[in-house]
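Section 3.1: Structural characterization of target chains.
Under the original work plan, the team committed to producing a structural model for every single-chain target entering the pipeline before any wet-lab resources were allocated. The record below documents one such target. The sequence was received from the expression subgroup and is listed exactly as submitted; it comprises 487 residues.
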Amino acid sequence: MKAVPVVVTVLVLGLFTAMPLTASADALADFNAGRKALDEKRYDAAIGLFTRVIRSGELTGENLGKAHCNRGLAYERAEDDAKAYDDFRACAEYWPVDSFSFQKLVQIGLKLGRYDEARKNVGPFLDRAGDDASSIMFNVVTLARHDQMNGRWREADTLLQRYAQANPDAKPIELARARSNAALGLPAIAVGLVRKVDNLYAANLTRADRGFERVWNDPGFLAATDIPAMLARDLGDAERDTVADPNKLQKVVAQMEALRRVGRSDDAIALGERTLASDLARFTDRKAYEVWIRDEIARSAKFKGDFALAEGAYRRGIERLGDQDPTVVNIIINGAAFLAEDAGKYQEAIDLAQRAKRVGASAFGNMQADSAAFAAHWGAGRTADVSRVLAQLEKNIDDDPNATIEALFLVGRAEDAARIVATMLTNPQHVDSMILRLQRYTARRPAQGPAAKAVEAGWNALRRHPQVLAALAKVGRIIDVPASGFY
């Protein structure tokens, strides 16, 4: 017996959206079951259900677009990006007024290396996105970087300006525009944009990034990227902000970081300890920032070379904060890394890394926890665990290439590490972070633990490796950078 058409509301993209579907009850049931399977991470089941809905022939227009969109999400989460891309393209065709499918065509297009297709979907997304333009900001930067690395400087700037119309004053966009204008021989515009970005990341990168070669000796550029002057100014700003907003723990953390960066680690530690000894209830953002003030005490102690104080700070912070909030995962991961790389306390590091993965929920956080666990397994001589975690790091290398590279140092695979670094220097998504990582950071405390020493030696060797130097010569150079400007 044929089912009677009905009108229902279903869960679409995680939101309750009124979607009247004049279709059979069977098609509607499949759609709802597909959404439920998607929410429950049963991706194969969701794909099957949405495929049946699409093939039923009962949906048209917007509703058919939504079915493709949901199946695209299932394919994406099942790590089948090619099929996901096809579904989002169908979604854009049948449901063209919505921005989500165009956002996905940009993001997945980049993952698939379809730069020209991804670029074509930026405009349609921005036309529909309203205030949500920031969701593809870094994708636009990557697209522009791809153009820049292929000598298409003006095309890159045109794309970046198109984005800037929707989201003015976005610093990553301004930094990318500065690179194009420097290469195009427009130093005034380039330096002006570098001044607008005005942060340590930009100062360190632009001094090493070959896109800025034509302004490296420009007096205005040198003034705009004067790291010691920038650090001193940041400290002054942080001190004024703490006085102006005494109920924000965030301001205290910023002041501690600024003190550490100018070499005043003792003052940073003293400020943190005084703050923790005071009435923390007065801080309206205590829940979000207590973890960072405790982590900053440990960082400052490590920076000045007092590893015993750093270890104690990590231990007290982790014990005090427990597992009360996912933000705690940050100090747990950092503590695990310290115990594995510097203190040589491997089992405790492994326990903390496992705890971090229970508390946290992000892919990047899990990668960082795996990295700390890897160093601990390596130090403890656990060969099977070393192989297991290294395989996981290599599988997810795009999430954090540095973690995989440093793991390869530890197992003696220096040539594989060099190959990865050289490849990353040709990748528009990773080239900037790799340029920064290759810089020599001066006035840093020597590594202490076996793992930290092996990692430090690995990076030093890479800076002399012919394959790395050949790739770097096309995009950057190696310079001496103050350790306080480390990113």
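The first helix runs from residue 25 to 39.
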